[in-house]
Every structure is written in structure tokens, then in C-alpha cells.
Task: inverse folding
């Protein structure tokens, strides 16, 4: 199946370059307008199924891009929420500059656990397992829902089954964790970060994601 991993639109915290993790804030007006403009221009693939983080910014993004009904019928996975940034939560560089713990984090290139926050390894594990579970549920439902297609006049073979296009509206960190662990193409962990509203289009073979050209 095709899988489209979309980062949610901009929030007030994103505009101020804050660590927005467990904070469940709404999209900013700027974020809403940017998404609506892209959606009107046909910038996103048409999807058949939707996977969502439970957080408000992801649900609002999905409603703008795919409509309220898609959100109401989406597969919402609690463990696809963003990382808990602990002491750094909802703070930005200006507020953290001079903090010894933050300097240690920067000196480690970002590969240091957040004080009183979630361990990076634990975060990556929960995101990947939850995402795999969601895709398995969709694969199973798709197989059960298949019905034989009508024969075409003169056709010697059955028409192939149409596999679904799955959209997943998630967080920047969640997408980084998934792509770092499951994508066949390899990058530095932080190179997988997407801008707000951007997406990766991938092919899912049941075990791995293969990045596709958009």
C-alpha cells in the first residue's frame, strides 16, 4: 500500500520555535491558512484510510486536508503522540540558553534524553510499534472487505486488487522515529524532520517503507 506521512500544520508554539510535545495546542491561524491553500491547490494525495495522533493539532490538520468525516472514521493511536520534552517542554532557545542541561543536550547533537522527559529510545519504540499495529489493522480490514470484481468482456485475467492509500497525520518527531527505523533509505535521524504541512510518500511492503518521488 501507499503511505503518506504528513506533519501537522503550524501551531503558535511552532511559530515561536518552541519544543511542543505533550502540550496539546491548536493550530495557529497561519497554520490553518497555509494548509487550506495547499489543500485547495491539490498538493496532497487522495487517501482511502486515515491514521491519526490523538493530539488536537493533528486532528485539526486532518480535518482541513481530508474533511470531518475522514477524522471521525480515522484510526487514532495514542502512542503516535509527540515526545514529552520534560523540562524543555514548550520552551525555546532564548528561554533555555544558559541552562547547563540544555547545553549538554546541544553538545550531544540532540542525542541525549530530555531531563524529566521521555527517553529517545522509548519514544522511537512506541511510535514504530503503534504505527506498525495501525497498518496491520488496515491491511486486515482491507483483505476482509475485498469482493470479486466483475469480469471484463474478453479479459483473460482478473483485474488486480486496488490497495489503499493510507494517510497518517502525525508529529515531526513521530515521523522522524518511524522513518529512521522503518525506511529502506538511510539518513541521519534529524535529517528526517519535515516542515509543518510537508509529507513523505512511501510504499509499504509489510515490513519496510520505501520513499517515493513526489
Result:
Amino acid at each position: 500500500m501507499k503511505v503518506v506521512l504528513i506533519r501537522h500544520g503550524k501551531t503558535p508554539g511552532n511559530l515561536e520555535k518552541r519544543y511542543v510535545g505533550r502540550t496539546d495546542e491548536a493550530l495557529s491561524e497561519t497554520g490553518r491558512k497555509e494548509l487550506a491553500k495547499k489543500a485547495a491547490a491539490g498538493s496532497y494525495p487522495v487517501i482511502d484510510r486515515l491514521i491519526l495522533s490523538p493530539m488536537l493539532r493533528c486532528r485539526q490538520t486532518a480535518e482541513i486536508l481530508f474533511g470531518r468525516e475522514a477524522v471521525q472514521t480515522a484510526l487514532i493511536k495514542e502512542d503516535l503522540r509527540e515526545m514529552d520534552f520534560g523540562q524543555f517542554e514548550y520552551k525555546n532557545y532564548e528561554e533555555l540558553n544558559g541552562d547547563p542541561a540544555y547545553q549538554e543536550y546541544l553538545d550531544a547533537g540532540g542525542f541525549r534524553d530530555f531531563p524529566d522527559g521521555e527517553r529517545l529510545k522509548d519514544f522511537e519504540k512506541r511510535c514504530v510499534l503503534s504505527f506498525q499495529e495501525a497498518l496491520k489493522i488496515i491491511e486486515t480490514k482491507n483483505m476482509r472487505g475485498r469482493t470479486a470484481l466483475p469480469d471484463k468482456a474478453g479479459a483473460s485475467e482478473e483485474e488486480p486488487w486496488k490497495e489503499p492509500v493510507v494517510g497518517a497525520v502525525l508529529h515531526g518527531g513521530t515521523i522522524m522515529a518511524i522513518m529512521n527505523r522503518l525506511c529502506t533509505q538511510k539518513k541521519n535521524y534529524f535529517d528526517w524532520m519535515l516542515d509543518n504541512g510537508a509529507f513523505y510518500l512511501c510504499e509499504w511492503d509489510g515490513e519496510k517503507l520505501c520513499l517515493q518521488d513526489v
User: Anything to note?
Assistant: Confidence is low (pLDDT under 50) at residues 147-159. The chain is about 35% helix and 15% strand. Residues 5 and 175 are 7 Å apart (CA to CA). Helices lie at 12-15, 29-40, 56-66, 68-72, 93-96, 100-107, 120-144, 172-182.
